[in-house]
């Protein structure tokens, strides 16, 4: 009987990942991050937040915009699916800086 190595594809593995190396120049994700970080003025969002002295820290509008647009580009239109992608998809983790918003974090964006 043939002796094959076992298929371990359904097991989890801890792998060190450098998120900044996942977004390669020339890709949609790179262009998305560059435009949002360098070309858009998102300072209008700052007026909405009054949590500098009290309250929890808010998710960055730039990060939320990147996550939403990346989700839409991948056909994800549900906030739950986008949130799940931020937890499980390396590309979403890289674009978001490993921010994983839950469903309550989407108010004002979707």
Largest sheet: none
Number of strand elements: 0
Radius of gyration: 18 Å
The helix count comes to 4
The secondary structure category is: mainly alpha
Strand content: under 5%
Element string (H = helix, E = strand): HHHH
Shape: elongated
Q: What average pLDDT do the residues reach?
A: 86
Low-confidence stretches: none
Helix content: 25-40%
* Spatial separation of the terminal alpha carbons: 57 Å
Secondary-structure blueprint of this entry?
Layout lengths: L27 H11 L22 H13 L5 H10 L1 H7 L14
Could you describe the 3D structure shown?
Residues 21-101 form the Transposase InsH N-terminal domain. InterPro entries: Transposase_InsH_N (IPR008490). It is a single chain. The chain is an all-alpha fold and 110 residues long. The chain has a domain at 28-36 and 60-110. It has 4 helices and no strands. Helix 3 packs across helix 4. The longest helix is centred in the middle third of the chain and has 13 residues, at 61-73. The model has no long low-confidence stretch (mean pLDDT 86).
Brief overview:
This protein has a domain of 60 residues. The chain has 4 helices and no strands.
Descriptors for this entry?
elongated; 0% strand; 110 residues; mainly alpha
